[in-house]
Amino acid sequence: MRRLGNKRRTVPTTRKHDTGTVHSHSHSHSNVTSAGPGADPADRRPSPRRTARLLAVALTALASAVPAHASEAPAPRTPAPVPTVSASADTLGTGQSPLPGWRSQDSGVTVRLRGLAAVDRRTAWAAGSQGTVLRTTDGGAHWRTVSPPGAANLEFRDIEAFDARRAVVLAIGEGEASRMLRTEDGGATWTEVFRNTDPRAFYDCVAFFDDRRGLAMSDPVDGKYRILSTRDGGRSWRVLPDTGMPPALPGEAGFAASGQCLVTSGPRDVWLATGGGARARVLRSTDRGHTWRATELSLPAGDPARGVFALAFRDSDSDSDSSDRGSSDRDRDRHGARGIAVGGDYRTGQPSPDAAATTRDGGRSWRPADRPPPAYRSGAAWLPAPWAHRVGSRHAALAVGPTGTDLTTDGGRTWRPMDTGSYDTVDCAPDGGCWASGEKGRVARLTR
After folding, report:
1. What structural domains does the chain harbor?
2. 24, 70, 73, 124: which has the fewest Cβ within 10 Å?
């Protein structure tokens, strides 16, 4: 998951038959004391139409359970990993800027962490299997479990954090397994703010434009993606009408792999990544999810395991001053936000050619990467100004996956290996705090 300042989030899709406000399971919005009977999505036998959205769940390697409790107690300790910095010895450009690398941190858990939100250099949140939520307020020196009580059967895949105290976490799955919970006290207490009551819906991602407005996305219901909307920071949610949503392709769905299938940029723009259909697509909206347009990409498609897994967008002027750029660059940037898309085929050993694409016009058109990452990638993030300056480019970004991390310094046209460790997702705060997380409780911070 991501900090609101990064303006990337996921959107739940709406169904035709759903109108009006979607209320949480508890109308009083009382503090959560039990996660309810929802079964772990990983234990369900997926139907053909659910295969694409359940593939990420099938990948989850559930290890030891994390006791869910409301107090911010230290996470159950596992042997602390030896801090290491993993990076290529290569340098960029003239050889003056060495590649950054990941320094591993002790998360204290062994569950898979697919949700991540970097707030600033000191504060970050992570979420994952078995109802696990972690938080650090000292740059990752200590990660503490702040899991909701009774949530051990929930599969958290996305988390959006406003600051060190406020966050919204999304649990995925069919029917009531899809839920959202909110905290205003750093995870000491949680309130269930949404519980899905439609057995056909399966929510994948949540994203916010600011600390009030946000969206959540479900796989298609009645042939269209379902979108939820909030105007009060996630305290309440309503289904948006689906009249402005184009039909989904047969077999198409979102991938709940990294909390990046729904992302935002600026006050109104939002994008939705899809897979499992005959063509990989990105849907974009410029009116906070009321109307959408679909664009096809060249990423691998035609199989439930293939498609666009993650998106990353930024405002065209977010890389600060443009005085040293040519007029052609400035002209292109005026047309919309810059974006990158990554994905491929998640299955081990399967080739993923053309696993990345880039846009300079807000997603109206996409161009395949000239030199994409060498394999499937599930997460992506633009590097903020402090890191962009260190690597010598305002157009730098990272892509992560099970076989490594790749770096681009030209806005996604070419990628080069940076690390070989396995990570599912990555997120960066504007002040330069960047983290990655993944299987077996892996958490790492970007360092020089």
Report:
1. 4-447 (2.130.10.10)
2. 73
